[in-house]
């Protein structure tokens, strides 16, 4: 079909290695969706302070809606308006994915088995406000209200009493409405993959200069996956002599303490593992360097998406095969402070490294079901191992109370200071209730 071919050519030709301002970015995304209507879905998840759309392009075999068994993945860039590399390489990632579908077997399988959400800019106002590009800092870092969006989320460790910005609220609603499993947010100003936690207290071991999550092993793997597939990040050479990152990764807290960050919010309240990717020493580099940045990151961006298929997934149903939403499903020995629950389809996704785990499914008020699961590395098969749980009872749909947006680890610290360590799980349940 001639029109389709013309559309395809014009979309590809339209994307060169330069910075795309709000109108051009919107035009590009609309052009991609017009050229690939069955592979993409374009929507705005909200608006910035100045009223610009927060565009998300969704790619996959079923782009418009969640499909049972297919995990949700996201990339978010340009959260700091003057950190610009991520914004442009995500446009090139979109271009690469749509033009490789049905031509490249790996990309075809990836898109058939994953729903990928790409948000090139979370802070369009900040980007537009950056009139004079600078390697180090401009006022465009912040949103129009002068707020740092990566200090603007609820914090699990302390009350940060921030005024939630429209951009932040839009992302929080988005996280709530999708079953995101894995994510990364793209920044600039360093070259490193940083992982949860960004904040901490004695419960997470921050006194030792490292704030450890229950899934620390998985986070290290995720950060290394990006770093070792990047052209140079794995070398661990910082942007100056004072800063080096062995293997190109760091625990967020070990690097510097950050309150109200997006990656911790995703992990605690969104049931989504997110890492922060610092992609360039210069925050707003010259356009002439953009092609090199794309080449340096291309393989890493793809390999990282594949990790959404780590671990185990499945459905929790009752005797009649009806899905049970809000059932708690977690691996023994790694309880989350906000227990990870099934979605409306009774689905769960747990990112776990290869090994043997006991998976515990609990419907509050009923007995737990335990299953020992052997997890291989299934990322190459583009599907986590599947294990379903079927409860013998019949359940009416119950709405579980959502996890309170309070500093949960602060509560846990207070309580655990007064009790023996063996009561840790009991304390966790008390905090939750």
UniProtKB/TrEMBL annotation:
<dbReference type="GO" id="GO:0006518">
    <property type="term" value="P:peptide metabolic process"/>
</dbReference>
<keyword id="KW-0325">Glycoprotein</keyword>
<dbReference type="InterPro" id="IPR050753">
    <property type="entry name" value="Peptidase_M14_domain"/>
</dbReference>
<feature type="active site" description="Proton donor/acceptor">
    <location>
        <position position="278"/>
    </location>
</feature>
<dbReference type="InterPro" id="IPR000834">
    <property type="entry name" value="Peptidase_M14"/>
</dbReference>
<protein>
    <submittedName>
        <fullName>CBPM Carboxypeptidase</fullName>
    </submittedName>
</protein>
<dbReference type="GO" id="GO:0004181">
    <property type="term" value="F:metallocarboxypeptidase activity"/>
</dbReference>
<dbReference type="Pfam" id="PF13620">
    <property type="entry name" value="CarboxypepD_reg"/>
</dbReference>
<dbReference type="GO" id="GO:0008270">
    <property type="term" value="F:zinc ion binding"/>
</dbReference>
<dbReference type="InterPro" id="IPR057246">
    <property type="entry name" value="CARBOXYPEPT_ZN_1"/>
</dbReference>
<keyword id="KW-0645">Protease</keyword>
<dbReference type="GO" id="GO:0016485">
    <property type="term" value="P:protein processing"/>
</dbReference>
<dbReference type="GO" id="GO:0005615">
    <property type="term" value="C:extracellular space"/>
</dbReference>
<feature type="domain" description="Peptidase M14">
    <location>
        <begin position="18"/>
        <end position="308"/>
    </location>
</feature>
<dbReference type="InterPro" id="IPR008969">
    <property type="entry name" value="CarboxyPept-like_regulatory"/>
</dbReference>
<keyword id="KW-0378">Hydrolase</keyword>
<comment type="similarity">
    <text>Belongs to the peptidase M14 family.</text>
</comment>
<keyword id="KW-0121">Carboxypeptidase</keyword>
<dbReference type="Pfam" id="PF00246">
    <property type="entry name" value="Peptidase_M14"/>
</dbReference>
<dbReference type="InterPro" id="IPR033842">
    <property type="entry name" value="CPM_N"/>
</dbReference>
């Amino acid at each position: 079909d001639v029109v389709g071919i013309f559309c395809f050519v014009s979309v590809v030709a339209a994307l060169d290695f330069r910075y795309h301002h709000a109108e051009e970015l919107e035009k590009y995304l609309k052009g991609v969706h017009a050229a690939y209507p069955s592979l993409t879905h374009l929507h705005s998840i909200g608006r910035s302070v100045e009223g610009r759309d927060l565009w998300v392009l969704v790619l996959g075999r079923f782009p418009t809606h969640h499909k049972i068994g297919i995990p949700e993945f996201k990339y978010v860039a340009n959260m700091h308006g003057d950190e610009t590399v991520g914004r442009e390489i995500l446009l090139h990632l979109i271009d690469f994915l749509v033009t490789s579908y049905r031509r490249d077997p790996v990309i075809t399988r990836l898109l058939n088995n994953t729903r990928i959400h790409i948000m090139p800019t979370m802070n369009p106002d900040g980007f537009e406000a950056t009139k004079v590009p600078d390697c180090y800092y401009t006022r465009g870092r912040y949103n129009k209200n002068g707020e740092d969006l990566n200090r603007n989320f609820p914090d699990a460790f302390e009350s940060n009493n921030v005024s939630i910005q429209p951009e932040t609220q839009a992302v929080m609603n988005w996280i709530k409405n999708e079953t995101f499993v894995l994510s990364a947010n793209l920044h600039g100003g360093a070259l490193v993959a940083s992982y949860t936690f960004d904040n901490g207290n004695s419960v997470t071991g921050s006194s030792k200069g490292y704030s450890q999550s229950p899934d620390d092993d998985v986070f290290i793997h995720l950060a290394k996956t990006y770093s070792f597939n990047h052209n140079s990040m794995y070398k661990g050479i910082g942007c100056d002599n004072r800063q080096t990152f062995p293997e190109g990764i760091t625990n967020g807290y070990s690097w510097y303490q950050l309150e109200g960050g997006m990656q911790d919010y995703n992990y605690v309240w969104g049931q989504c593992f997110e890492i922060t990717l610092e992609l360039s020493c210069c925050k707003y580099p010259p356009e002439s360097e953009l092609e090199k940045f794309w080449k340096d990151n291309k393989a890493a961006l793809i390999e990282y998406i594949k990790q959404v298929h780590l671990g185990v997934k499945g459905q929790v149903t009752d005797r009649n095969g009806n899905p049970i939403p809000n059932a708690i499903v977690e691996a023994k020995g790694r309880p989350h402070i906000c227990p990870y629950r099934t979605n409306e389809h009774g689905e769960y996704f747990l990112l776990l490294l290869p090994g043997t785990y006991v998976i515990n499914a609990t419907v509050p008020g009923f007995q737990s079901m335990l299953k020992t699961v052997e997890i291989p590395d299934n990322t190459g098969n583009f599907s986590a191992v599947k294990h379903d749980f079927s409860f013998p009872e019949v359940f009416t749909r119950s709405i579980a109370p959502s996890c309170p947006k309070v500093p949960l680890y602060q509560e846990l610290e207070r309580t655990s200071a007064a009790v023996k360590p063996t009561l840790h799980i009991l304390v966790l349940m008390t905090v939750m209730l």
